[in-house]
Prior knowledge:
Elements: H1 10-22, H2 28-43, H3 50-61, H4 70-82
Helix pairs in contact: 1-2
Amino acid sequence: MVQSIIDIDKREDRILNIVKAKFGLKNKSEAVALIAKIYEDSFLEPELRPEYIEKLEKIRKGKYLKFNSIDELRNITVNLKRG
């Protein structure tokens, strides 16, 4: 566990006390940890679920049409529609 000394204003101290009381936490360190976890879940990129990674791998292994220009893509799609 990492220990840190931080300087906070009275307002932030009151907020930590409110979080501590609301969630029944033992100390302000747990309140800071909870706030960090909520921030992580809300604003940072989540880890990809294993089933999603498997789905991406299947897509990557699939067959693709290759084209060099938009016109070539249009010709390919028109020909696919015609059968």
